[in-house]
Design brief:
The protein has 115 residues and is of the alpha+beta class. It contains 2 helices and 5 strands. It has a 5-stranded mixed β-sheet with strand order 2-1-3-5-4, covered by helices on one side. The longest helix is centred in the C-terminal third of the chain and has 20 residues.
Length: 115
């Protein structure tokens, strides 16, 4: 991992923490936030403007808060390492704390609000 990749991962973690700390009224009630993981994690290049970020809220099942879309990570090994990293950061304090459930899907990760 190079410096650009590390900085990008740090930015993604900060964005997830912010999104989960104060979700909007309708989020989790049939709508979710979407976070697009940038392609630059594949090769360590600098992030391009508009390549990643928080996308508009979309329809979702009840209690689904945040979808982390990692489909741009074409290298399966990098995608797997990204998912392990996100799980290691969020599962013990967030999911283990009883507030959220983290689910893996073919094209990304989903945070659900626990009932």
């Amino acid at each position: 991992m190079n410096l650009n990749q590390a900085e990008t991962l740090g930015g993604i973690v900060r964005a997830i923490k912010i999104l989960l700390s104060g979700y909007v009224d309708d989020i989790g009630k049939g709508r979710r936030l979407n976070l697009l993981v940038p392609h630059c994690l594949n090769n360590g290049e600098s992030i391009e403007h508009g390549e990643a970020g928080i996308l508009t809220a979309t329809s979702a099942v009840i209690n689904e808060l945040l979808f982390i879309d990692d489909h741009l990570l074409e290298d399966v090994a990098i995608r797997d390492m990204f998912r392990v990293f996100i799980r290691s950061v969020f599962e013990p304090p967030v999911v283990g704390g009883g507030k959220f459930i983290l689910e893996e899907r073919s094209n990304g990760l989903v945070f659900f609000l626990k009932d």
